[in-house]
Amino acid sequence: MKAVVATAAGRDRVELLDAREPVCGHEQVIVRVEAVGVCGSEVHIQHGTISWDMAYPVTLGHEFSGVVVEVGEEVTGFAVGDRVVAETAAEIDTSSEWSRTGFYNLDPHRRGFGARADGAMAERVAVPERCLHRLPDEVSFKLGALTEPMCVAYQATCVQTRIRPGDAVAVVGAGTIGLLSAWLATRSGAGPVIVIGLARDAARIDTMKALGVTGFATSTEDAREILQSHGRDGVDVAIDAAGASAALRTALDLTRPNGQVTKVGWGLEPYAYSLDPIVAKQLTLRGSFSHTWAVWERVLALLARETSRVVEQIVGWEGPLDEWATGFALQSDGSVIKAMLRPHALNDRRQRPG
């Protein structure tokens, strides 16, 4: 079968290969992949600019939806034909402290799909039953493949962060996680909600408006002007969904005394600025990583509502596996917010920007 594989560390070590068919273990199912999103982390893998452990060679892909086509002998909760999505923790120690206390997402020995275990950027993938969630009939495969990034945003915005109705919120980063975090903030009653991004992200303003974003800024000064126009001198909550050193600085600068900053974006570079604003303003700085079973169930219930269809607007390109490099390039240069591969599309449904 075809699969998009990271063959080794370093730049341009991702390619389309003929891979072995996955073997179905006793507690696993085989999923026929119908849609798999390109994550920003995979663009970093292609560019050789990652800050996490990988196991090479490895098939990429951890944002996916599909149909069960085979079940292992000990699988009891799913059957052939079920529409599913899957969590990312492909391998965990179920007897560890982290699993026993419900924080298996923080297990330092976990092996995630597309990083340390073969992922879903392929025609089929083997998935443990414990990772599976049913995809509601109301949710398309396209929207289903957005469940995982939505869960990352939910964990950051709704679990690790306290947002109260009327809070002013700033999200730094106008990518998938940033825009989904902004949408969830609006759903939590926050307002105004502003997004700070790069100049090129101005092309995404229509999508931001559809997601309920109040305003878009490209600098701390512009963000302050938007906030002042709404009678605010800063934000109560800031979410760093970009990961760069300057992004965290912007989040700290904009947050009012006694506020909270949540960091969900990854960054390879060391922090290059003073952390004194955390002390001077008595800020709370929290990290957010991955997600848990409860988050997935809540997000799927949310996506099943018709009002959630709006988030599909972040998908700007769809194409087959053999055009993976096009999807990666469009996402890398900012032409689209989210590229998505459709391994079993019956015809060419690619959507080109512009």
Tell me the helix content.
Answer: 25-40%
CATH class of the largest domain: Alpha Beta
Low-confidence stretches: 346-354
Tally of alpha and pi helices: 11
Q: Which of globular, elongated, flat, extended, rod-shaped describes the shape?
A: globular
Describe the model.
With 354 residues, the chain is α/β, with parallel strands linked by helices. It folds into 2 domains: 2-150 and 291-341, Medium-chain alcohol dehydrogenases, catalytic domain (Quinone Oxidoreductase, Chain A, domain 1), CATH 3.90.180; 161-287, NAD(P)-binding Rossmann-like Domain (Rossmann fold, 3-Layer(aba) Sandwich). It is 26% helix and 24% strand. It has 11 helices and 18 strands. It has helices spanning 40-47, 97-100, 141-144, 147-159, 176-187, 205-210, 220-229, 245-254, 276-280, 293-303, 324-332, and strands at residues 2-6, 14-18, 28-37, 58-59, 64-71, 83-86, 89-91, 111-112, 124-128, 132-134, 169-172, 193-196, 215-217, 235-240, 255-263, 284-287, 315-319, 338-341. The chain is globular.
